[in-house]
Design goal:
Elements: E1 2-3, H1 8-34, H2 39-44, H3 47-53, H4 55-80, E2 102-103, H5 112-122, H6 129-147, H7 156-171, H8 175-185, H9 195-200, H10 203-213, H11 215-219, H12 234-241, E3 252-254, E4 263-266, E5 272-276, E6 290-291
Parallel strand pairs: 1-2
Antiparallel strand pairs: 3-4, 4-5, 5-6
Helix pairs in contact: 1-4, 1-7, 4-5, 4-6, 4-7
The structure holds zinc ion (2 copies).
């Protein structure tokens, strides 16, 4: 008998983990650079020099991205039948009553072209030629990264976009960010300092993506419209300032995006807040979105009556 047959969920979970880790590798490099918080250092050592130095990590990310995609294809195939993945001749399968038990993991499974063809055959989604071309490009990029050929590692922007594109293609918009938050919150150390404060820190991930790929690209992976004017979020602001930290990032947007709207939604904490439409009294601030405690969500200053 063939034992320990994997399930669809096993593969899907590993696929998501590979893609999240591929992105996390970039985020960690960026975060440790940001920790210096010193304009002189940033002038002398621009971010692209940091990416250049970290090419071995970027290479790992490309391999993880490819692995995540292969594992996703396997999950779809396994959903139909785990036997479709087996490469060995059927006559050699240990399935007759007298055969010895063989662990599924010790058998050969399809990879590369055979995997892609089987995936296309069983996929219930309408597979566009764009999607198939994308999968093939990633396979070639992974080969280039391993062989040290081509220049795939010299543009982190492309790799980051490819990871987000893969996640969105397979699991839908927004899922990558929700899953990253869930992943961080499942860390056994999460919450020991302060649950609310630590949950809010995911804004740093959004900042990192804005710096590396830009808002226009980032929009492709969010269902919420993030092209409008941006405001500080009262909920995030409260959490961050409760620990004497300063929040400068604006990830909240008016809903609906109209001059009379009195609600904002934050894509970082996923909360809606009520706001007032009054002109900010701070000099040179043109803001007119004030939270219920009197803080201007444009400049972050408290309105003094
Ligand atoms: Zn928020
Ligand atoms: Zn203001």
């Amino acid at each position: 008998m063939i034992t320990n047959i994997p399930t669809y969920d096993d593969f899907e979970k590993v696929s998501k983990e590979c893609l999240i880790q591929a992105l996390e590798l970039f985020f960690r490099i960026y975060s440790s650079y940001k920790e210096y918080n010193d304009e002189n250092i940033y002038e002398e050592v621009p971010l692209n020099e940091i990416w250049e130095h970290n090419k071995p990590t970027l290479r790992t990310s490309v391999i993880l991205l490819h692995q995540g995609i292969e594992t996703y294809m396997k999950s779809v195939i396994v959903k139909n039948s785990p036997y479709l993945l087996l490469e060995q001749k059927r006559a050699e399968w240990p399935t007759l009553p007298e055969s010895k038990d063989v662990d599924y993991a010790s058998m050969y499974t399809f990879a590369g072209e055979n995997l892609l063809h089987t995936f296309c055959a069983v996929s219930s989604d309408k597979l566009t030629s764009d999607k198939v071309k994308f999968i093939e490009t990633i396979r070639q990029n992974r080969n280039k990264a391993i062989h040290g050929a081509g220049n795939i590692l010299s543009d982190p922007k492309i790799i980051i976009q490819d990871i987000l594109r893969a996640y969105t293609y397979f699991f839908g918009k927004d899922h990558w960010f929700n899953d990253i938050r869930k992943w961080n919150q499942s860390n056994p150390l999460f919450g020991y300092y302060d649950w609310g404060f630590e949950s809010t820190l995911s804004y740093k991930f959004l900042d990192f993506l804005e710096i590396t790929i830009g808002i226009k690209q980032l929009q492709k992976y969010f269902s919420f419209d993030i092209s409008g004017r941006r405001y500080l979020c009262p909920t995030c602001l409260y959490e961050i300032s409760s620990k004497d930290d300063q929040l400068l990032s604006k990830w909240a947007f008016l809903i609906p995006n109209t001059p009379t709207s009195n609600k904002i939604f934050c894509i970082n904490c996923d909360f809606e807040s009520e706001i007032e439409r009054v002109h900010c009294k701070i000099e040179n601030c043109k803001g007119n979105v004030i939270d219920m405690s009197g803080i201007c969500l444009t400049c972050g200053e408290k309105q003094l009556s």
